[in-house]
User: What shape does this take?
Amino acid sequence: MCAACAGAVDVVKYLLELGADINYKDKYGNSGMSLAKRHNHTAVIRAIKSKQSKITEEENAGQNPECDVKFVEEFFCVSCKQEFSNTTREQHSSSTVHLFNCHPRPNATIYGIPENNRGYQILLRGGWDKEKGLGPDGSGHKFPLKTVLKKDREGFGAPKKLGLLENPQQSLKYLMEIEELGEEILVDRNEVVALDRRRNQTREALRALMKEESHHKTWMTVGSMLVKLPVDKAKDLLQRDQVQLDCEINKLRSELKVKVNKLRDMEFQPPVPGLMLNAMSKDEMKAVYQILSGKSS
Assistant: This one.
């Protein structure tokens, strides 16, 4: 390859006479021919091509055309009930005539349940043909009925609604309801965040007032006014505000759960897992601790 790249014709011819592999490639995928073409060494290219042509002639001369001729003998096909002399057994076994005369049976039906299933065996003992449907003449259902996942929360007998494409006005109204419900969810969520921030500020103010003495007075903002109140009264106001904030946040969160599930139903999506769970009460927690302590003992 170095000789081909350098254009040394005599060295290339000598190496080819010694039996050098003309198809050898380096780690970059370059052969002697590609390197010679890249550097435009025409003499080296001619030498390699002449060697390739000699190798091809020798390979063609070494082949015996008589070896490719398959011996054809007469044979009798039991399925076709006829003798054949113009083809081989292998070719005839894959021909359309032979396959038609063999009457091949179709593949067995797969039902997705094992054949040792009790219901499957009861049907077979009752005379059922597994390649046909139910009924005396086999015209009934052949496969089990497919189950359909129920994605809404409506009960049996609920009026069937038209599809979105069948009633354009109803579809537009339906999409507007989804949009309005989504906006309500976003507004309620932002309100919960704002109330929670306000509750944290109230909690911090209560901690700060706990350090003050009860007979002192402190400044407190009420709306847009700055008022100086006794510490005890300020604590009382903050505690009432804290209780009211807790009630409003819990109410909004419970309404959000219902709205989110309704939105997912309208979008034909399954409900959020664990969204409707409620926290355990103190009595329930005590009962759980008693059970766990009893098991550990």
Remarks:
- The domain at 2-58 is CATH 1.25.40.20 (Serine Threonine Protein Phosphatase 5, Tetratricopeptide repeat).
- The CA atoms of residues 200 and 235 lie 15 Å apart.
- The longest strand covers residues 217-222.
